[in-house]
Amino acid sequence: MTDAKAIYQNLLDKVSEALLANDVEAFLIHSAIPHYIETETEKLLIATEQDVRDKFQIWSLTLRSKGVTDYARMCSEAAYVTPTRILGSHTSQFLHGPVVITPSFPSSLELGNHNGQWKVRRAIQQGAFVTWPDLLPRVSTNTGLHSSRQSTGGGRDVTA
Known about the structure:
Elements: H1 4-21, H2 24-29, E1 31-38, E2 43-46, H3 49-65, E3 70-82, E4 85-96, E5 99-100, E6 105-114, E7 117-125, E8 149-151, E9 157-159
Parallel strand pairs: 1-7
Antiparallel strand pairs: 1-2, 3-4, 4-5, 4-6, 6-7, 8-9
């Protein structure tokens, strides 16, 4: 496989599958060490294999505890920057079966080829109010119209 967009989409699919299956070994195959994760609120350095394992477990548990059954990611564009580096962008969306849990949000990855294996070197999640490891973008549901929900101020709603 040499098409940058096909490589990028294949990696998206494999990483999403690994997260939802709680398969850290499959996830590790596609994770460069070190690598970086950026959200709107923080930047994380994942420096060791144990860091990958720890963050993976938290992220996988977070997605599953929110009822995520599908992590739909679609490559928008991807291009070689060098023969061993691909930069691309994609949209991400979390679903519970056919039900949308989060609106679609843009993300991007930097991939590096390490001994013939494409791995994520840097991930940027661009959802509003995103924090690690709870990467679900926040959308206010508090309309103020006879709602039994109250905002906690951090973009999260709680039932009163």
